[in-house]
Amino acid sequence: MAFHRFVYAMTNSLRGKVVLITGASSGFGEDAARLFAAEGCKVVLAARRLDRIQSLAESIQRAGGEAMAIPVDVVNRADIETMVEATIDLYGQIDILFNNAGFGRLDWLERLDPHRDIETQVQVNLLGVMQTARAVLPYMIQRRQGHIINMSSVAGWVAAPAYSIYAATKYGVRAFTDALRREVSPFGIKVSGIYPGPAKTEFGQHTGNHPMKQTTLRRIFPSMASEHVAHAVIELAKHPRRAVILPWYYHVVAFAEAAMPWLVDWFVIQWVTKPKHKIKIDKELS
After folding, report:
1. pLDDT at 282
2. What is the set of active-site residues?
3. Which residues contact 30 (CB under 8 A, 6 or more apart)?
4. How far is Cα 269 from Cα 179, in angstroms, rounded to an integer?
5. What pLDDT was estimated at residue 202?
6. What is the pLDDT of residue 272?
7. Which of 243, 20, 36 is nearest to 146 (CA)?
8. DSSP assignment of 211-227, as one string?
9. Are 25 and 74 in contact (CB under 8 A)?
10. Residue-wise over 9-41: b if at least 16 C-beta within 10 A, else e?
11. Which of 97, 74, 70 is nearest to 83 (CA)?
């Protein structure tokens, strides 16, 4: 009987937790919201597209879950503070922050728009993650518990050509995650990073139509389902770890980047970058 009680506690370890999710209007955020709600969590949905998160909240409520929608643009610090205060006013605590808001632009650096593609990408992907964690942290420190899950990318381990700004922000998220974990661990707070490879979400619809999307690697390693990553987020919330890289074979890529960067340089330049630059040059000459 004691064993059964232990198993029940383990399988329901997220029940009653208050989970704040940024970037909840689509992709990993939307799928994770549904799964957290199914685990019995109280889910706070935050994103710019209010209609999308309101619809998601209603869907979760119809399924018997508890959800609240709050419009927020993580570029705006006042929005972040309002989001956190509203959550605390309603629930009195934030147990899990899924810091998920982000987007990408895929193009050669000289072709990126300085504001829309460079500055805004840094503001959303990196500063937004930092400012949201900063706003939530005092409440977690006060309770001596909490878990911050930062969404990064395999681009935070291996920087691909034409993803220069995106990779810079995701490397930054990885460094921020590691530093923050070491900073707040004495207060009983866990900080984790999740690093997925390509996945089937709206993300790809907004990165632009660049030849780098059609690489040999993409054909060898197909995109994951968004739900697969969301399930990994739930497992990470149940069993906190330092980092989760998805799928498993990107561990090999990350190891190669750390141990043999010269080999990764050679391979990427010869087999990925040069062929795509040839397409660029041919188009310019035609």
Report:
1. 55
2. 166
3. 24, 52, 56, 226
4. 32
5. 63
6. 85
7. 20
8. GGGS-HHHHHSPPEEHH
9. no
10. eeeeebeebbbbbbbbbbbbbbbbbbbbbebeb
11. 70
Alpha-carbon span 273 to 267, nearest angstrom: 9
In the chain, the amino acid numbered 143 is R
Q: Smallest Cα–Cα separation from 282: which of 219, 208, 211, 207?
A: 211
Mean pLDDT, consecutive 10-residue segments, the chain of 286 residues?
42 86 97 98 97 98 98 97 98 98 94 96 98 98 98 96 96 98 98 94 55 54 88 98 96 96 94 76 54
CA pair distance 138, 34, nearest whole angstrom: 27
What is the secondary structure of the chain as a DSSP string?
-HHHHHHHHHHTTTTT-EEEEESTTSHHHHHHHHHHHHTT-EEEEEES-HHHHHHHHHHHHHTT-EEEEEE--TT-HHHHHHHHHHHHHHHS---EEEE-------S-GGGS-IIIIIIHHHIIIIIHHHHHHHHHHHHHHHHT-EEEEEE--GGGTSPPTT-HHHHHHHHHHHHHHHHHHHHHGGGTEEEEEEEE-SEESGGGGSS---GGGS-HHHHHSPPEEHHHHHHHHHHHHHS--SEEEESTTHHHHHHHHHH-HHHHHHHHIIIIIHHHHHHHHHHHH-
What does each C-alpha distance from 85 to 47, 53, 115, 249, 266 come to in angstroms?
16, 18, 30, 40, 50
CA 245 to chain centre: 12
Q: At residue 189, what is the residue type?
A: I
Cis check for the bond before 114: say yes or no (omega within 30 of 0): no
pLDDT number for residue 5: 40
